[in-house]
Amino acid sequence: MISEHTVKAFDEDITRLRGLITEMGGLAETALEGALDALIRGDEVLAERIVADDRKLDALESEVDRLAVKIIALRAPMADDLREVIAALKIAGVVERIGDYAKNIAKRVGRIEGRTRFEPLTLLPAMADVAAEMVHDVLTAYAARDAALAREVIAQDKKVDAFYNSIFRNLVSHMVENPATISSAAQLLFVARNIERIGDHATNVAEMVYFAATGDYPLDEEEN
Question: Where is each PhoU domain found (predicted)?
């Protein structure tokens, strides 16, 4: 029979695991917001800070890995509990990758000239806002094991894709008409692609959250 102490220790470990994931999500959101702010204002000091702070996310991911291994080795979780631990492992890796994308955006800040020439600079913050909202909502869904909110996050990815397609067409046209801006425009394309990938990763997390809460993947249910 499982002792009350063992159950309490397991619950504490799971609570700690959720807390680490939430902390990672907050750092990733802040990094994305800061990277776009630095990009729009050409603030290279802020950009350098975003790049340096990425190490905090890396450290938290390592802590999640260690804790998850400890839980599996010592607590031998089953069914729902095991799904949650595995989902946390995967989610931590994805959130760390979101932070990497924000870092990559920050690295482009000093490589863009003539910011006022580019209309997409007015679209990129709006695109990033949708992606950041997806990250925020999916972490909320994870904390609450909210399958319905996870599905809403998945649906939001279409908006990010639409932004990307619009920005891509605009920048390609701009490069054709203004060859001298090709280098800077290419950097902005890279930024847009990174934001689009953040949306994709938020969607991946949402699918994991949905699975952890229900035992099914959204696509599996749609096909039945």
Answer: 21-109, 126-209
pTM, whole model, 2 decimals?
A: 0.85
Taking only the tens place, the pLDDT of each residue in 87-125 is: 888 889 999 999 999 999 999 998 887 666 666 567 888
CB 95 within 8 A of CB 205: yes
Query: For the chain, how many structural domains are there in total?
Result: 1
CB 134 within 8 A of CB 160: yes
Q: Kind and range of the H or E element at 214?
A: helix 182-214
Length of the chain (residues): 224
Residue 132 structural domain: 4-223
Give whole-number Cα distances, 59 to 92, 160, 168, 190, in Å. 11, 29, 34, 26
| CATH number (domain holding residue 143) | 1.20.58.220
